[in-house]
Design brief:
The complex is a heterodimer of chains A (737) and B (185).
Chain A (H helix, E strand, L loop, with lengths): L1 H36 L9 H31 L5 H37 L2 H38 L3 H12 L3 E5 L5 E6 L12 H8 L4 E8 L2 E13 L5 E9 L2 H22 L1 H49 L14 H43 L3 E5 L5 E4 L1 H7 L11 H7 L4 H10 L6 E9 L2 E15 L4 E10 L1 H22 L1 H18 L5 H32 L7 E3 L1 H15 L4 E7 L5 E3 L1 H18 L7 E9 L6 E7 L28 H11 L3 E6 L5 E7 L12 E4 L1
Parallel strand pairs in A: 12-14
Antiparallel strand pairs in A: 1-2, 1-5, 3-4, 4-5, 6-7, 6-10, 8-9, 9-10, 11-13, 12-18, 14-15, 15-17, 16-17
Chain B lengths: L1 H18 L3 E5 L3 E10 L2 E10 L3 H8 L4 E11 L7 E15 L4 E6 L4 E5 L2 H8 L1 E6 L9 E9 L6 H9 L10 E5 L1
Antiparallel strand pairs in B: 1-2, 2-3, 3-8, 4-5, 4-9, 5-6, 6-7, 9-10
Classes of the chains: A alpha+beta (737), B alpha+beta (185).
Chain lengths: 737, 185
Amino acid sequence: MAIMATQLTLRYKLTTWTSIGLFTLLLVSLYFLSNATENSAQVGRFYSWLLLFNALGLIVLATLIGLRVARLIAEYRSRVAGSRLTVKLVLLLVAMAAAPVSLVYIVSVQFLQRGVDSWFDVRMENALNDALELSRVSYEGRLRELARLTRRMAGSLSESDAPSLDLVDMRVSSSASSLTLLDQNGTVIASSDVDPTAIVPDRPPELVLRQLRNGYPYLEMEPISTREFQFRVVMPVDVLGPTGRNYILQALYPVSEQFSTLAGNVESAYAAYNQLAYQREELKLSFILTLSLALGISILIATLTAIILARRVVAPVRQLVAGTEAVAAGNYEQQIPVSGHDEIAYLVRSFNAMSRRIADARQAQRLSHDQAEEERAWLEAVLATLSSGVLTLDHDNRIGSANAAADQILNAPLTQAVGRKLQELVQEYPHLNDFSRVLSKQLQTPGGWQEQLTMFGPRGRQVLILKGASLSTDLAKKREEHVMVIEDVTTLIQAQRDAAWGEVARRLAHEIKNPLTPIQLAAEHLRKRCLSRVDGEDAEILDRSTRTIVQQVEAMKEMVNAFSQYARTPELKPEPMDLGVLVSEVLDLYMESLSGLTIDTQIEANMPRVLADPGRMRQLLHNLFKNAIEAMEGADRRCLSISMQYVGEESSPAVELEVRDSGPGFSSGLIDGLFEPYVTSKPRGTGLGLAIVKRIVDEHGGAIYAANASNGGAIITVHFLPYRDERHESPGLVRVS
Amino acid sequence: MHRMNVLRLSLCAIVLVVTQTAVVAADSEFAKILTRIREENGVRVMDVRIHYEFSQEVLRALNNGLPIILETQAEELEPRSMLWDKRITTTLVRREIRYHALSQQYLVRNIETDSQVNFLTLSLAIDALGAIDGLPLSTGHTDKLKRYRIRTRLDIEGLPSPLRLLAYLSEDWSLDSQWQSWPLN
C-alpha cells in the first residue's frame, strides 16, 4: 500500500515537472513564433516548425491536464475525501486567471485587427504608386536620351566602313558599359565592354531580337540585383550584313548609384507594401493564432497551477479525512505526516496525538482484557477440576455461572442454564426444590452462610453441604451476586458408616463367634448327659431348652458368618466379562426354581464388557435378585424386571443394570439407610444383603442408586464402567421372558 | 492563354523529338514535364522542360510582389529486390520568380548560382523557370535496369510566414507534381 502511494506520488511529481518543462518550452517557442509571424529573418524560416511544435505541445499539455481534470472529476463523483474542496478551488483559481486573460485576449484581437488595418492607407498606397510612377518617368526620360544617343551611334555605324572598329570609340564616348553589334539572329559581330575580362558579351533575349526583327527598338531599365540597375537599349543598324539583313546594336548603360539606390528603395517599399496588403488577412490570422496559442497556454498554465495548488492545499485535509475514517474503522495506529507550521499542521498534530492516545488506551484495554480472560480461563480450569460444585446467582436468582461438578452433584445441567432463573430449573428438575428453597432463604441472609441439605434425586439420597457468600457488584443499585460452594458428602458419610459397620462386623465376628461353638458344644453335651437321666417334665424342658440353645447358636453363627462375610475384603480377581451373560445365567436358576414369578429381561445387544470379579459379581446378582424376590412375597403380582443398557455420555460411559420389582417399594424411613448393614424390612432378614451389594459395587468402582417406581415397586440401579474403550456399536434389544 | 501554352509545349516537344529519340513526357495538373537525354562531351545529361500551370491565387501573389520558389528534384535510381531503390544521382534545382514593379519585368533567379534573368512577360518567365538543362546522369552503361524520376513543387517554406499555414491547408497553394518516373536505358 505504501509502495503504491509512493509510486503514485512519484508519477504525480513526474507529470507535474513534465508539464512545467513543456510550459517553459512552449513559452519560449511562443516568443519565437511571435517574432516569426513578423517574418523575422532569424526565425522566419522556422515558423512552420515553431507553429507545429506549439500546436503539438499544446495538445500534449491539454491531454496531460485533461487527464488530471478527468481524474479530479472521477474523484468528485466518487466522493473521494477532499475532492469537492479541490474542485471548488480549481474552478475559483481558473476563473480568476481565465477572466483577465480572456479580456486581454479579446482586446488584443480587436486592437490587432485595427492595427493591421491601419497599416494600409489609401494615401500611402497612392504615394507609393506615385513614387513608383515618378521613378519610371525619371528613368524613362533617361532612356529616351540614351535611345537618341544609341540611334546616333547606330546611324554612325551604318555609315561606317568598319563598324566593328568604331565600336570601341563609340562606347568610350557614350559612357556605355557595353556595346555589341549583332546580326538579327543574335550572333555577335563585334563587341566592346568596359570590363576587359568579359569575353562573352551579354546577348539580348530572344524576345528582344524578335521585337527588333519586327522593326521595333527595345528600351528598358533592367534590374541586375535588388539595388542595381542597368539600361538596355537595342536599335536596328542600317548596315547590310553578310546575310543581307540589318545589324542590331545593343548598348548597356550603367545607372547612377544614387538613382539605383533611390529606385531600389522605391521598389522595395512598393513591393513590401503590396506583399503586406496581399497578406493582410493571413497576417491577422497569424497574429490571432499566436495570441490564441498564448491564451490557450495561459489558461492551461492557470489550470495546472490551480490543480497543483488546490491539491497541495487540500492534501492535509484529505489526509485528515482519511485518518478520521481510519480511526472510525478501528485503525488507531493512523498517523498523518505533518508539514508546515500553519493551522492545518496544528490540526494534524492534534489528530496524531489523539489517535496515539486512543491507540495506547486501546492497547492497555486489550492487555487488561487478555489478562482478565487468562484469569477467567484459569479460574474456569480450576473450577472444572474441583470436586465441589460452584454456583453463582445474581440478585434475580438467575444462574451466573456453574462448574461441571455442580451439574454432577445436583443432577441438573446448570452449566447450560446460565442466565435462567433457578425456579425455572426447579420446574424441569423437581428434585432441586429443596435446594432452591434453602437458597431462597439463605440468600436473604447478609454475609456468608453454611447449611447441610439432604436431597433426594435421581441417584437417591444425597447429603450436601452448602456454603455461600454475597458478592457486591453494584452497590449503588444494590445488586448483589451470590456464590456458593456445594459439596456432596453422601459418599463420605457413607464411607464413614461403612467403616464403622465394618469394624462392628469384624468385632462381632471375632468376639461373638468364638464363644458360640463352646456354647453349642456345651448345650449338646448337657443334652446328651442329662436328657437320659431325667424324665417327665424335666426332660421335656431340658430337651426344649438345649434345642433352643443349639438353634439360636446356629442362628447366631449364621448371623456372625454373614457379618464376617460383610467385613472381610477378599482379594479381587477382575477380568473382562460380559455382565449380560452372567445375568442370564443367574436368572436361569431362579426361573427354574420359582413358580408364579414373572421375569422380564431386556438386555441390549453388543454391550461393552466390564472389568469385574465374576465370583463377586455373581454374589451381587444373587443378593439383588433374592432381595427383590423376597420383597415381593405376599404380593398379588410378582414381576421381576431386569434391564441392561449402555448409558452415559462420551465423557462418562457406563453399563447400567436395573432391577425392578413389583413389591411395595422402599418405605420412606428405610430408604435413607438402605445400603447400611442391619437395615431391613423383612422380619427374618439380617439387613446385610444390599449392604454387601453396595460394598461389591464400591469395590468395582461403580455406583448404586435406589428409588421407588412411580407405579409402585422398588428400583435398584447399578452402574459399572465399561472395559477400556469398548464402545456401544449397534444397539438392539434382546427380550427374554 | 491555355491553348497557347499547350501549343508552345507541343512545339517544344516536337523540337526535342526531332533532335533526340529519348524524349518522354509526363503530365500533372500543376506541371507538365518533358525530359530529354543527350550526350554532352561524352557524358549523359538530361534536359528538362516543365510547363507550370499556376493557380490564380499564386499568380495573384506573384503580381503582388511575393517571390515564388519552385523546387525541382531529379533522381536516378537503381531498383533493388527486397530493398528500397538505390539512389545513384540526386539533383535539386531551386528557382525563384518574382515581379519587379518598377521595371515591370519578371525576374527568374537560380537560387543556387544566384544568376538572374529578366523577362518582359510572365509566360516567358514561366518557360524559363521550367527550362533546366544538363542535369547529370551516371556515367557508364550497366546491365542493370535503372530509372529516373522528377518531382517539382512550390516551396511553401519559401513563402512569407503568415502565408505558410494557409498554403499548407489550401489546394491553391498545394502545387506538387509528385514523383514521375521513367525507365532509363
